């Protein structure tokens, strides 16, 4: 029995030795395999960081079977890290997929997009802002720009100023359009209708809330103001004409009155230069507490410092003494104060919060205008706007209702009545003029053979600064 037992013990010892050798080899193989797995994971992480695809190695790693718990834990940790990286990548992608801001609208050519859509935040461009001039004693008005009280007052009127600015931006864009297409050979009706079509689109016309402030003036040569063609007028613009383009826009009755002169023959350049300089001089010297007569004096002095040679003859450029600038009220183009363009006259002062049209007219003629040609401009009498007027003609009553509904106390012309579908209304219109409820404004002309020019801007006398609200890059 003992011999047998001894033999069994020896065999067991041999087996144990053999088993130890096998386990060592197995552990070594496992360690090598684990190191391979770790290396592959490191490679995979590096490739993920660099963005290199690793489909084949990834598939091989998935097929690898971990042998002990340590390696299983390592693989699970790697999977968690990979999930976190993928989650992080997803967040990054979400951040990159931010909603795009709506594209800013650009104006078309010809202009058709309303100004309100081009500036949806209602922050319309400001005009040229400047300090007020020093008074006669040399005292500066710079304190207004820094005064907290004046700034607060100015802010309280911001909604009103914004209406002016919206109308002014429409005016700037329309006149840029006009300056691009106007040329000899076009009829005056075509010029006016193209201008008015653009104005109606940009101002987003809505009866009395927004629209054209008065008819488009396109007065030629010796005619200085208040000419617009009636239906059937076949007048054509020529190379030797001097044409005054005077039109207005409004938002809620806040009127922009602004004009410029077009000429194609360079021989008239000095006339245009003189009038533009006179207008800018008037704007520069205008301000709160400035006397209107003093403004007229500096305007005339500037205007009449110019001469022009036409066809071998020299002419002094004269200020047209019976034309002037004016204050502007809500729905009222002439609000009561006049801004003369010659010395003398009213000593009334400009006041804070007022709005003025600074316009000057120069002429190679006598410098005095008179009524001439067929009337086209009309305007409801502001003082009688709310008064009851006895009218005998039913057609006159109907026409007055149409005028009140569409134009109110703003100026209008016969073409605009035609546009509303009215016919055979001339007798009714005459009846309204005879009764005083509507006033006619016929064309104003200097002597035949002379030439006239006009430039005009609207200014706001804000509490803390002067704003030339209609100022543009063109003039």
UniProtKB/TrEMBL annotation:
It catalyses: Release of N-terminal amino acids, preferentially methionine, from peptides and arylamides. Substrate binds at residues 226, 334. It is found in: Cytoplasm. Binds 2 divalent metal cations per subunit. Has a high-affinity and a low affinity metal-binding site. The true nature of the physiological cofactor is under debate. The enzyme is active with cobalt, zinc, manganese or divalent iron ions. Most likely, methionine aminopeptidases function as mononuclear Fe(2+)-metalloproteases under physiological conditions, and the catalytically relevant metal-binding site has been assigned to the histidine-containing high-affinity site. A divalent metal cation 2 binds at residues 257, 326, 359, 456. It holds the Pfam family Peptidase_M24. InterPro entries: Creatinase/aminopeptidase-like, Met_Aminopeptidase_Type2, Pept_M24, Pept_M24_MAP, Pept_M24A_MAP2, Pept_M24A_MAP2_BS, WH-like_DNA-bd_sf, WH_DNA-bd_sf. It is an enzyme of class 3 (hydrolase). Keywords: Aminopeptidase, Cytoplasm, Hydrolase, Metal-binding, Protease. It comes from the Eukaryota. Residues 1-10 have a biased composition (Basic and acidic residues). Residues 164-367 form the Peptidase M24 domain. GO terms for molecular function: initiator methionyl aminopeptidase activity; metal ion binding; metalloaminopeptidase activity. CDD domains: MetAP2. Residues 38-50, 93-103 have a biased composition (Basic residues). Residues 1-147 are annotated as: Disordered. Belongs to the peptidase M24A family. Methionine aminopeptidase eukaryotic type 2 subfamily. Cotranslationally removes the N-terminal methionine from nascent proteins. The N-terminal methionine is often cleaved when the second residue in the primary sequence is small and uncharged (Met-Ala-, Cys, Gly, Pro, Ser, Thr, or Val). Protects eukaryotic initiation factor EIF2S1 from translation-inhibiting phosphorylation by inhibitory kinases such as EIF2AK2/PKR and EIF2AK1/HCR. Plays a critical role in the regulation of protein synthesis. This is Methionine aminopeptidase 2. It comes from Phallusia mammillata.
């Amino acid at each position: 029995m003992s011999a047998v037992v001894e033999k069994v013990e020896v065999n067991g010892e041999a087996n144990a030795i053999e088993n130890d050798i096998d386990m060592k080899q197995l552990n070594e193989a496992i360690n090598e395999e684990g190191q391979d797995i770790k290396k592959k994971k490191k490679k995979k992480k590096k490739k993920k960081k660099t963005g290199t695809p690793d489909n084949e190695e990834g598939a091989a790693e998935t097929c690898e079977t971990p042998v002990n718990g340590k390696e299983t834990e390592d693989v699970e940790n790697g999977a968690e890290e990979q999930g976190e990286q993928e989650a992080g990548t997803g967040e990054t992608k979400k951040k990159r997929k931010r909603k795009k801001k709506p594209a800013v609208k650009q104006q078309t050519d010809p202009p058709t997009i309303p100004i309100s859509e081009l500036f949806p935040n209602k922050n319309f461009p400001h005009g040229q802002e400047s300090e007020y001039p020093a008074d006669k004693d040399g005292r500066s008005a710079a304190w207004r720009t820094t005064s907290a009280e004046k700034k607060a007052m100015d802010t309280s009127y911001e909604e009103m100023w914004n209406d002016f600015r919206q109308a002014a931006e429409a005016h700037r864009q329309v006149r840029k359009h006009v300056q691009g297409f106007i040329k000899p050979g076009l009829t005056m009706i075509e010029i006016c209708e193209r201008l008015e079509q653009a104005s109606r689109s940009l101002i987003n016309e809505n009866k009395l809330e927004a629209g054209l402030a008065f008819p488009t003036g396109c007065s030629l040569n010796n005619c200085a103001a208040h000419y617009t063609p009636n239906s059937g007028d076949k007048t054509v613009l020529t190379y030797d004409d001097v044409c005054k383009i005077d039109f207005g826009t409004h938002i809620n009755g806040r009127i922009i009155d602004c004009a410029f002169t077009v000429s194609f023959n360079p021989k008239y350049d000095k006339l245009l230069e003189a009038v533009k300089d006179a207008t800018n001089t008037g704007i520069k010297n205008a301000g709160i507490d400035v006397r209107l007569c003093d403004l007229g004096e500096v305007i005339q002095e500037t205007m009449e410092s110019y001469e022009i040679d036409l066809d071998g003859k020299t002419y002094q450029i004269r200020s047209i003494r019976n034309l002037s600038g004016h204050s502007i009220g809500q729905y009222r183009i002439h609000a009561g104060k006049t801004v003369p363009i010659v010395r003398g006259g009213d000593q009334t002062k400009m006041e804070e919060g007022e709005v003025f049209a600074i316009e000057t007219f120069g002429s190679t003629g006598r410098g005095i205008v008179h009524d001439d040609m067929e009337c086209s401009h009309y305007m409801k009498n502001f003082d009688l706007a709310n008064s009851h007027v006895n009218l005998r003609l039913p057609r006159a009553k109907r026409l007055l209702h149409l005028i009140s509904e569409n134009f109110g106390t703003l100026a209008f012309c016969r073409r605009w009545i035609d546009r509303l579908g009215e016919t055979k209304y001339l007798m009714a219109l005459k009846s309204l003029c005879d009764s005083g409820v509507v006033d006619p404004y016929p064309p104003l002309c200097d002597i035949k053979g002379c030439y006239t020019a006009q430039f005009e801007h609207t200014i706001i006398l804000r509490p803390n600064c002067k704003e030339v609200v209609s100022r543009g890059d063109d003039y």
